[in-house]
Amino acid sequence: MEKGNEKVMSLVQLPQKAIKDVQFKLKELENGYKSWLAKQPLPVEAAIVTATTAINGAAIGAFLGVMTQDLTSSLPTPPPQSSLNPDAVAPFQQVQAVAGGPLVQARNFAVITGVNAGISCVMKRLRGKEDLQSSVVAAFGSGAAFSLVSGMGGANPAANAFTSGLLFAIFQGCSFKIGEMWQSTQRPTADDVYYARTRGMLDKLGLQNYTKNFKRGLLTDSTLPLLTDSALRDVRIPPGPRLLILDHIQRSVNCP
Fold first, then answer.
1. CB–CB of 140/168 below 8 Å?
2. Which residue ranges does the record assign to the SAM domain (predicted)?
């Protein structure tokens, strides 16, 4: 009976092990891609990030457009005489810009996600971190681009692009702060035990914002003595913090 139970347990564990192996391989591929991308010149990285994110956004937008169908078919059309009056046509154009079919939604999502990701990429490379300011700037740019591309600007596209960008920025800023507040209330995850010394070191150096970089690169406590400048660069830690981290590790080795 015990042997039968052991066989059942082994059969149950096989799929779980296979899933974990696949997840590990995918994580390795993702880290390798991010590492390669971080070594590219800024224009190349920004272009790749913008294009890939826009493609993903277009796919999501097209799917939503198919699911919701083309709402413009049920919307009223402007009367013929209104074609000479831009103010009369503008409301109809604005509704069509956000309630169109798969192609319209694909365009909208591609612009919003692509521009946002591209600006975020540039801001992160230049400033060395992801924070509220970078998030708000990226949201403003995506909102303005969406307004211009979708035709929601009406008779005054510049003013409407600014207004749309401002609304996107406010919404993104609020979402960012809410996310920070939510994360601060969460309990440490199970894998945090592998980063206890790392967190302590970063807190001591005032670099606690880079804890996520270590986790993204799977740089656990056991890898601290092996850290090099290139390894820290691969997880997108700027030169100044890299020097502080390596100096701290070197001092810890010399003075145990």
1. yes
2. 202-251
Domain with CATH 1.10.150 in the chain: 190-254
Q: Which residue has the tokens 């070594």?
A: 39
What's the pLDDT tens digit per position in 203-233? 888 888 888 899 888 888 888 888 999 999 9
Q: What pLDDT digit, counting tens, does each position of 53-80 carry?
A: 999 999 998 888 887 765 555 555 555 5
Residues 252, 255: Cα–Cα separation, whole Å: 5
Nearest to 209 by CA among 235, 170, 171: 235
Q: From the CB of residue 79, how many other CB atoms can be counted at a distance below 10 Å?
A: 11
User: CA-CA distance, 242 to 128, in Å (whole number)?
Assistant: 11
Residue 182, both tokens: 């939510």
Q: DSSP letter at 75?
A: S
Is residue 102 within 8 A of residue 65, CB to CB? The reply is yes
Compute the distance between CA of residue 193 and CA of residue 180 in angstroms, rounded to an integer. Answer: 22
C-alpha distances out from residue 132 to 65, 139, 210, Å? 31, 10, 15
- Measured CA to CA, the distance from residue 206 to residue 219 in angstroms comes to 18
* CATH architecture label of 190-254: Orthogonal Bundle (1.10)
> Do 167 and 147 form a contact (C-beta atoms < 8 A)?
no
| Predicted structure pTM score | 0.57
Give dist(CA 198, CA 215) in Å, integer.
Answer: 10
Give the CA angle between residues 23, 26, 28 to the nearest 5°.
Answer: 110
